[in-house]
Specification:
single chain; 233 residues; mainly alpha; 9 helices; 0% strand; globular
Length: 233
């Protein structure tokens, strides 16, 4: 039953994401429906996470809080001009919450080389875009990039340090962190530098894939329950 629910949530999330992307960009261009399907997609990911992580309740709470803040950010960014800075702040806080969750699994920056690689990538992108970012937005954008980079690096620390049954979910989390950085890189280039063809498709597809992988890092409830039941001698 749990696997069936997970499959249906995945199908519904993909369908909702496709409708959001189509209605917000090049295909259907009915922006009113974007206001329905964009939040709905993130809500379906929240529902996916809600059923998981019973073995680590504190980690689950931080991940869920990050997803709820992401939902707030999604709604705010439906108004790209007025909602940009508030949406940026909502996502910044979401990344901080994810970092706290991830550090419950591995110490912060446990692999300094990983952090250095992510910092180099993010710093290079930010430096290239810096002159195109309006001065009033430079500090908020830099703060957001810092939080995003630390989140992605910490997800990679977990992915590289995982062992046993946790490897698949941990590697998925590592990919999720990388996809989040890719999504926001396309968003920043498209907003501040030059138009990216089919930007909405690339931004939202990678964003929701990242969020799904972060939610999927939490151990399924059925697995956690089975692991907690002692076997007979």
């Amino acid at each position: 039953m749990n696997n069936a629910i997970a499959r249906w949530l995945a199908v519904l999330a993909v369908a909702s994401a496709m409708l959001a992307i189509a209605n917000g960009s090049w295909a259907l261009d009915h922006r009113a429906l974007l206001f329905v399907f964009k939040p709905l997609t993130t809500l379906l990911i929240i529902a996916h996470a809600w059923r998981r992580g019973t073995d680590t309740p504190s980690v689950c709470r931080f991940v869920l809080a990050g997803l709820w803040l992401s939902l707030l950010g999604d709604v705010l960014l439906l108004w790209p001009r007025q909602g940009f800075v508030p949406g940026l702040v909502a996502f910044l806080i979401a990344h901080v919450l994810y970092i706290v969750a991830f550090t419950r699994e591995q110490p912060f920056a446990a692999q300094p080389a990983v952090l250095a690689v992510y910092a180099l990538i993010a710093g290079t992108i930010l430096a290239l875009l810096w002159g195109t970012i309006p001065p009033a937005l430079r500090i908020p954008v830099a703060a957001y990039v810092l939080a995003l980079t630390l989140m992605a690096a910490q997800s990679a620390v977990i992915g590289l340090g995982a062992q046993g049954d946790d490897v698949r979910r941990a590697r998925g989390l590592m990919l999720g962190g990388a996809l989040f950085m890719a999504s926001d890189t396309v968003l920043a280039v498209n907003r501040f530098a030059l138009p990216v063809p089919a930007a909405g498709l690339w931004i939202l597809a990678t964003y929701w894939a990242a969020q799904w992988l972060i939610a999927s890092w939490l151990k399924p409830a059925c697995t956690a329950t089975a692991a907690s039941v002692p076997t007979s001698p």
